[in-house]
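Lecture notes, unit on protein representations.

Consider one protein chain, 225 amino acids long.
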Amino acid sequence: MACWRLPVLVSPIFRVLYHLHFAIAATLRWAYRVFYAGPLFVGRCDSVGKNFSLMKIPDTPSQTHLSFGDGVRLQGHLAVASGRVFDNPEFSVGDRVTFGPFVFATASKQIRIGNDVKIGGGSRFLDTDGHPRDTMSRIADDPPPADEIKSVQVGSNVTIGRKSIILKGVTIGDGAKVGVSSVVVANVPPNAVVAGNPARLVSRTATAAPVPPPPAPASTDSERQ
């Protein structure tokens, strides 16, 4: 099979140019994040902690109040939207939280994420259905009523697998793990491992407190004799 080769004399030159290309591209991406995208997004937020890093400017055109703790990393596109029911919706993130790419959140009331949480790419957090349950209200394009919008709470040391969906009113306890592509519709206990659609309890993490054995039945007088 024919193979295209550069002349021996010019091959080292193009090898150097190849590596130079990626070095320049990496430098330009770093300058974009540090001198443009980072300051632009920090100016949008209510508060941002130390050592915050991002790859792209998050898409947050709504009126949601945004706060991020120390060491938060956005490894790709993040979008945060909100509805038109509450005046001061909140999207709050603790310390050392890592977001994978293409994470989306609808924070029409409140979404809070604790410390040391890892969120897989393509995951979604929704504190509202985005429409009222009543059929005629949907036809009229009315917003969902306030009592149908329920906060989402994620504890600390939680891992959320890629493409998972966390629905309204859900609380995920500390140390829990959510499997890939799970749909979480109910509260997750601390240190639980859940997976599936809808997400169900699969196991407990190693840090979970062991389940005590059932008490031994009391011996009868006849057994003593």
